Amino acid sequence: MPLALYALTVGAFGIGVTEFVMTGLLVPIAADLDVSIASTGLLVSGYAMGAAVGAPALTALSRQLPRKMVLALLMLIFTVGNAACALAPSYPLLMAARVVTSLAHRTYLGVGSVVATHMVPSQKKASAVATMFAGLTLANIVGVPGGTWLAGALGWRATLTQ
Q1: By three-state DSSP, how is residue 123 classified?
Q2: What is the pLDDT of residue 70?
Q3: Is residue 4 a contact partner of residue 72, using CB atoms and an 8 Å limit?
Q4: Residue 104 burial (CB < 10 Å; 0-12/13-18/19+)?
Q5: In the 8-state DSSP scheme, what is residue 63?
């Protein structure tokens, strides 16, 4: 498999960790931002809503651009959104940053899948997509527990900057 395919896998890993690690950060975020745990749970829903809305909108807006440029722009949105999450001084700003971060989620996975299939011969297309999506699987197996551990050791904001 081409090395660039593994870059897509790393991107999928980062997206997966960002989506799911919040479940392990609810208590420290609630304590730090002085909100209820139930309110911090809405950060998961806010991300999901942003991803659901962002995919069709960003896909439509970016369809004329080169796919590699789209992937780079999506990762820029994702990175800036995560940095804003880590720096958010209040719950409303954290929620807004989570929604911004999520906008890139599904569009990255869709465009990345198409790019992955164009990197390999036709008989390896399914394997290429599976390799990219292995990043999401690893995010749940390694990234979420690791991010939760990191939050316990260095604070929840450290998890969102990694």
Answers
A1: helix
A2: 94
A3: no
A4: buried
A5: T
* Structure-block tokens of residue 111: 């465009």
Give the count of beta carbons closer than 10 Å to the beta carbon of residue 146: 16
Residue labelled with tokens 């730090």: 32
In whole angstroms, what is the distance from residue 111 CA to residue 61 CA? Answer: 13
Rounded to 10 deg, the angle between the 105-118 and 125-138 helix axes is 150
Secondary structure E strands in the chain: none
Give the chain's radius of gyration (CA, Å). 16
Q: Which residues of the chain have pLDDT under 70?
A: 162
Which candidate, 100, 93, 115, places its Cα nearest to that of 12? Answer: 115
The structural domains of the chain, with segments of one domain joined by +, span 3-161
* Helix-helix angle 67-87:37-62, to 10 degrees: 160
Domain at 3-161: CATH architecture = Up-down Bundle (1.20)
Name which of 114, 116, 102, 113 is nearest 55 in CA terms.
102
Residue at 162: amino acid letter: Q
CA distance 61 to 5: 24
